[in-house]
């Protein structure tokens, strides 16, 4: 019997001040698209304003790359990189698994959430938007480091 592939924890949609419902937004976007026969920057600005009125934030997805490399002991490790975070996943000397996370800056650290089996063990709750450029309080479940500093 094979174990099903794990799926990511569903993330709640961050909402700010809601002015219109999603249904009203879809209707408004349809009207915008119907009124503009030659779509241009004004068309997209109008759509952006409708989306913002729903309380949703417009975000650009971060590109993610992953590769396998070897550490100083020639043990394999996965390196996962985004613009804001580097993660190294490898076997610990005691046979466990070590996940090292390196946020690019304080803002990346404040926006970081770490989940184990769908439960936040580090960072703000998933339904709490990270305040822009703030010193948001984050809770941490700190354990001993993985031990190997030979990377």
Quick overview:
The protein is of the alpha+beta class and 151 residues long. It is built from 3 helices and 6 strands. The protein is elongated.
How would you portray this structure in words?
The chain has a domain at 22-53. It has three helices and six strands. It has helices spanning 22-35, 41-53, 106-110; strands spanning 65-70, 76-81, 85-91, 97-103, 114-116, 119-122. Strand 1 (65-70) and strand 2 (76-81) form a beta hairpin. Helix 1 packs antiparallel against helix 2 (41-53). The longest helix has 14 residues, at 22-35. Residues 134-151 have low confidence and may be disordered.
Topology:
Elements: H1 22-35, H2 41-53, E1 65-70, E2 76-81, E3 85-91, E4 97-103, H3 106-110, E5 114-116, E6 119-122
Antiparallel strand pairs: 1-2, 2-3, 3-4, 5-6
Uncertain residue segments = 134-151
Radius of gyration over alpha carbons?
A: 21 Å
What percent of residues adopt helix (DSSP H or I)? 10-25%
The N- to C-terminal Cα distance equals 37 Å
Keywords:
single chain, 151 residues, alpha+beta, two-stranded antiparallel sheet, 3 helices, 6 strands, disordered C terminus
